[in-house]
Amino acid sequence: MSSEQDRSSLRLENQLCFPLYAASREIIKHYRPHLEALDLTYTQYITMMVLWAEKEISVKQLGQRLYLDSGTLTPLLKALEQKGYVNRCRSKEDERVLLVRLTEQGRELEERALCVPAAMQACVPLSPEEAAVLYKLLYKLLTPGAQTPADDEPRA
User: pLDDT tens for residues 75-112?
Assistant: First the structure.
């Protein structure tokens, strides 16, 4: 490889990571006003999405689902617990396992959050077909060889 080819590999426009990073920031920026109305950060919101589906999950499984480490999850769960949306407790079967459970107040928050996906779809300039392709490609990057987590149409 020539020196010029080496240099071109360092150009921003030749990086796959940059449009992924910038697009992620833009999408999260569009979420912000909707989530502020719910008193949630984006990371708290995606955590609540898992809990709305699961009702109870171990911290380890939650971290795996969200691609987050315990150093990020612990303060996040503490904040959600202080807001009254979740409880953390030890498993009765194995006390080494820390469980996160959705509270009644957390279930009620789900009703208030129902408008967020539709509002976000309006912000994303992709057709449903394009969104489905992008969704599959992004999950392919996250977990090579794995299936996407859901067969549903992706939402913004």
Answer: 999 999 999 999 999 999 999 999 999 999 999 999 99
Q: Which of 118, 127, 110 is nearest to 156 (CA)?
A: 118
Nearest Cα residue to 97 out of 133, 70, 115, 65: 70
Per 3-state DSSP, the chain is made up of helix, strand and coil in percentages (nearest 5) of 60, 10, 30
| Cα(154)–Cα(16) distance, integer angstroms | 21
How are strands ordered across the β-sheet holding 98-102?
56-58, 98-102, 86-90
Please, which residues bridge with residue 86 across strands? 102
Distance between start and end Cα atoms, the chain: 40
Class of domain 15-142: mainly alpha
Alpha helices in 38-127 (DSSP H): 42-54, 59-66, 70-82, 104-113, 116-121
Instruction: Say whether 50 sits in a helix, a strand or coil.
Output: helix
- Kindly state the tokens that stand for 56: 């109870």
What's the predicted TM-score (pTM) here? 0.86
What pLDDT, in 10s, does the model give residues 22-33?
999 999 999 999
Residue 68 pLDDT greater than 70, yes or no: yes
